[in-house]
């Protein structure tokens, strides 16, 4: 048994459902009815090992879909091979075992990465890599009850819905477009998934017989319309030598700050081409890309606490990447902020009023609300299901609105990294109104239905090679009650006085956080602020502090919002969950909340470095 935690340091959501996983033991002996084998080359059937459901494929096997000739469709060698093997598998495996095969999907992600890092004026690394990742989703039974159905236990120890059951994910895949190699890999993965699905389906039926009736008896899978979409291949290319020089120059700026003990400036480019076919008839061939410049730096305070800050700039194409001057300005601002934070006094536990500045407010909503309105969590009986029965109820003040819109690619001039045209289940992305005038209206849905929400709204997402579940894309918070930021700050001081608090807080930015959604743990969240400033009620100068986390529970936290500012900003990051890491954004105005709770964070006990960095000694 293993605790799945979503944790990473830079520009991420660390949202945790803390799903307990069990390594399902698979039977190694299968009924003869579906242990048919493929003949080895040069041998007859009687000599073949009984390990595969269907014969290893040849490039000539299979027939193109009936309407492929009459429509403009994806027609690459990869798609053709995937479609041919899918048709062969559906035809020959449909009734090859006790539980009939009713759905099959293949997804292949061709992923290319470029990573460059400068540190203290030198190039630390310059590397690229390419891989192809395969995910096979295979379902037996029928849409009402199939092998993905949750196995319930006294202490939930089975994977979340549609995570692992009857699937094969994360495996390597041929880099070359060789039809025989591609189809053989698909054949092997399909065989493994089919056998596992048969075992899982038997477990599901037994589990239902010995457990109490489920609260949500929704089907296991929803219908989806056929989608055919093709995009020409892209290739993101940069001048590696020029960018190496930029990273050297920008990273050398940190040498001017002796208090900083670790720093870097990074260029990261990710591009992926997705190939997807399924038995609904959908066929997708499209692209995803991400370009970003990040800078990070850390220092050790005199009391041993490590303070670390980072900043970044997202782009959608190489020509939008920042200039040398822009990167240098970002680095200088970051370096000064790290030094200021290192010299700031440590904060103390506190309960009182606070302003969550816009980016911090976006992360707050991502953790507190966003993960709890992901559809599959509403019927998973190991989940807390905070909002499952609250559709139509007031969950926050009536001036608040929240929606998720993965169809948007920008907010003003800022790119939104959570955008996509089709989700990882082949469903078109859709705008979903989650909260309207403070009232909960809906959930983010993949193809796992829940009570009163029978269809996907295009939010089934995953990292390449993993099983998709409902996830956030571009979460957007709005308010009809807004004031200028200066007025919001004045309201903070008034609220601190009304509560007899010496100060209120301004949470400038949050690096990430985690939230616990399962019901055997407290339904709480923790956010990791980068900069916390005390705003004194008696007019004393503001005071920067360090070393605290924001903690709380969702229902009470959402009710405490008092007002919003006339500003909006976007947090772009990466969020980890059952289906892996996906790019997300969260956009919000700054928010004044009546009370927020701070707790002291873990502090290391190491002393700062004894000697100054060699680059600045003697200056």
TrEMBL record:
Residues 353-597 form the Metalloprotease TldD/E C-terminal domain. Residues 47-68 have a biased composition (Low complexity). GO terms for molecular function: metallopeptidase activity. It comes from the Bacteria. Residues 38-71 are annotated as: Disordered. GO terms for cellular component: cytosol. Pfam families: PmbA_TldD_3rd. Belongs to the peptidase U62 family. This is Metalloprotease TldD/E C-terminal domain-containing protein. The lineage of its organism: Bacteria, Bacillati, Candidatus Melainabacteria, Candidatus Obscuribacterales, Candidatus Obscuribacteraceae.
């Amino acid at each position: 048994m293993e605790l799945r935690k979503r944790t990473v340091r830079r520009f991420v959501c660390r949202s945790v459902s803390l799903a307990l996983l069990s390594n399902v033991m698979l039977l190694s002996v299968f009924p003869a009815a579906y242990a048919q084998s493929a003949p080895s080359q040069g041998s007859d059937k009687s000599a073949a090992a009984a390990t595969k459901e269907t014969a290893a494929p040849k490039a000539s096997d299979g027939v193109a879909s009936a309407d492929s000739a009459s429509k403009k469709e994806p027609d690459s060698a990869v798609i053709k091979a995937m479609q041919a093997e899918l048709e062969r598998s559906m035809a020959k495996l449909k009734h090859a075992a006790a539980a009939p095969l009713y759905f099959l999907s293949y997804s292949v992600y061709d992923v290319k990465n470029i990573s460059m890092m400068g540190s203290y004026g030198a190039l630390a690394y310059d590397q690229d890599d390419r891989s192809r990742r395969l995910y096979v989703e295979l379902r037996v039974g029928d849409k009402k009850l199939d092998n993905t159905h949750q196995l319930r236990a006294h202490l939930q120890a089975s994977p979340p819905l549609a995570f692992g059951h009857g699937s094969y994910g994360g495996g390597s895949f041929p880099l070359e477009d060789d039809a025989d190699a591609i189809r053989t890999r698909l054949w092997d993965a399909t065989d493994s998934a089919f056998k596992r699905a048969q075992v899982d389906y038997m477990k599901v039926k037994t589990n239902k017989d010995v457990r109490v009736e489920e609260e949500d008896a929704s089907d296991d899978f929803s219908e989806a319309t056929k989608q055919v979409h093709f995009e020409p291949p892209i290739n993101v290319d940069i001048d590696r030598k020029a960018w190496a020089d930029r990273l050297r120059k920008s990273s050398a700026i940190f040498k001017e700050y002796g208090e900083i003990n670790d720093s870097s400036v990074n260029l990261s480019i990710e591009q992926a081409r997705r190939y997807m076919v399924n038995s609904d008839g959908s066929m997708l061939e499209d692209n995803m890309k991400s370009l970003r410049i990040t800078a990070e730096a850390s220092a050790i305070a005199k009391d041993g606490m490590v303070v670390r800050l980072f900043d970044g700039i997202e782009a959608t194409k190489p020509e939008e990447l920042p200039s040398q001057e822009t990167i240098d300005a970002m680095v200088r601002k970051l370096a000064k902020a790290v030094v200021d934070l290192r010299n700031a006094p440590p904060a103390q536990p506190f309960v009182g009023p606070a302003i969550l500045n816009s980016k911090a407010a976006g992360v707050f909503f991502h953790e507190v609300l966003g993960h709890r309105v992901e559809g599959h969590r509403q019927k998973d009986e190991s989940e807390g299901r905070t909002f499952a029965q609250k559709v139509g109820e007031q969950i926050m003040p009536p001036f608040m609105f929240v929606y998720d819109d993965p169809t948007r690619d920008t907010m003003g001039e800022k790119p939104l990294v959570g955008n996509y045209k089709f989700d990882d289940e082949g469903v078109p992305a859709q705008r979903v109104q989650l909260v309207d005038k403070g009232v909960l209206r809906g959930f983010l849905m993949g193809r796992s239905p829940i009570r009163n929400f029978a269809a996907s709204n295009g939010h089934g997402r995953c990292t390449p090679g993993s099983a998709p579940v409902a996830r956030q894309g571009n979460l957007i918070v709005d308010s009809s009650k807004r004031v200028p930021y200066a007025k919001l700050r004045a309201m903070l001081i008034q609220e601190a006085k009304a509560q007899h608090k010496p100060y209120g807080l301004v949470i400038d930015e949050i690096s990430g956080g985690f939230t616990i959604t399962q019901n055997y743990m407290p339904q709480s969240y923790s956010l990791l602020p980068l900069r916390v400033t005390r705003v004194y009620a008696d007019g004393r100068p503001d005071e920067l502090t360090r070393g605290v986390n924001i903690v709380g529970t969702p229902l009470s936290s959402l009710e405490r919002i008092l007002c919003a500012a006339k500003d909006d900003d976007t947090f772009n990051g990466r969020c980890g969950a059952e289906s892996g890491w996906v790019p997300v954004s969260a956009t919000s105005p700054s928010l004044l909340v009546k009370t927020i709770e701070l707790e002291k964070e873990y502090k290391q006990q190491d002393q700062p470095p004894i000697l100054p960095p060699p680059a600045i000694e003697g200056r």
